[in-house]
Amino acid sequence: MGKILAVVSTNRERVGGGAPIFIVETEEERQDVAFLLEKILDASAHDLKNGSMILVDHKES
Q1: Which of 3, 16, 40, 53 could form a disulfide with 34 if both were Cys (CB 3.0 to 4.6 A apart)?
Q2: How far is residue 1's CA from residue 47's CA, in Å, rounded to a whole number?
Q3: How many CB atoms lie within 10 A of CB 25?
Q4: What percentage of the chain exceeds 90 in pLDDT?
Q5: CA 49 to chain centre
Q6: Residues 6-21: tens digit of each pLDDT
Q7: What pLDDT is recorded for position 60?
Q8: One Pfam family for this entry, by name (predicted)?
């Protein structure tokens, strides 16, 4: 099972929880921020197809 490290979304009302949340203005900015975080956090970005992307650590602890 993976651990959600961050959420990047264009819709503030559709996200919540304990992971850091990054709210962006456009779909392009959402992808740019998610892919930068993917590299920085050494994680995998997953598009939920609802205006949000999650960054997941799939490595075993």
Answers
A1: 53
A2: 18
A3: 8
A4: 93
A5: 12
A6: 999 999 999 999 999 9
A7: 75
A8: YIEGIA_cap
